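In response to reviewer comment 3 from the previous cycle, which asked for concrete evidence that the modeling workflow produces usable outputs, we include below a single protein chain processed end to end. The sequence was submitted unchanged, and the resulting structure tokens are shown without manual editing.
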Amino acid sequence: MKLNDLLVSTGIEPKSVLVLRHRPFEPRFRKILPWLAAERPDLYNAYQQTQGEKLEKSMVGAGYVASFIGHEPGKAIFVGLYGIGQSQRLTFEEYWQVVAYNEMKALGMRGFTEEDGRSSILFFNLALTDFYAQWKGKLVVGWPPPERSCWRRAHKNDIPVLAILEESALAAGMPLWDEIGLTWDQLAVLPSRWQTTLSQWRGIYFIFDAADGKGYVGSAYGTDNILGRWLNYSTSGHGGNRRLKGRDHRNFQFSILQRVSPDMSAEDVIRLEAKWKERLHTRYPHGLNDN
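The workflow returned the following structure tokens.
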């Protein structure tokens, strides 16, 4: 079975479809683009609503974009089929007035810069269709060479369907607790599966300020456990901690030092927290803990 077979079966002419395989060159943003597709479809769509000049010209006369994310070498994961509507031209200044682009810049996207050599960019109105919506994150296709080519015309390419997964590949499973490392910006776009797991974990966590190398040790044992504490930081930037206030929270990096039993008493968790403060020397003035 080919992608074109799926298009034809729903009455869509392959000649009207451009197939996009998103694989951002920015490593940090590439890591979380699947998260955006799963959790923040508004940001994901904003990302693909502007394109390089060559693709931009082809989109003007096309009817749809079939949107995929680079999965593995030679493969791509389906996100959705979007109808191409009207476009408007944005200057550099107008582009950066769009909230979504500033959000994604904080997540590692470069975006439209003056170094691109053009004074404006087209912004396309892309509307998600219901084309095989149940296969979002599950439909895996092969990507014909060359690997670096990020888009194709559907009717000129044989794009094979390789697999239909049981679960979405857009939100990867949780890493081991001692392998978690998240930036402050990433807390706002955590996959739902990650959130569910973090809400069940109690433990001792560490916040590293990359600006000056100082650290903060905290404990989580209340409502929603580690998730609850980290979402508090995501909202406030400082979580109510005096030594974190006034610092640029965009430099904060979050990890877990120790996971504890879900029935461990608050007193025992706090005792472990104090031990970690001693080991890592995070009490002021060497670190960011007040006590």
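The mean pLDDT is 95. We consider this sufficient to address the reviewer's concern, and the full set will be provided in the supplementary archive.
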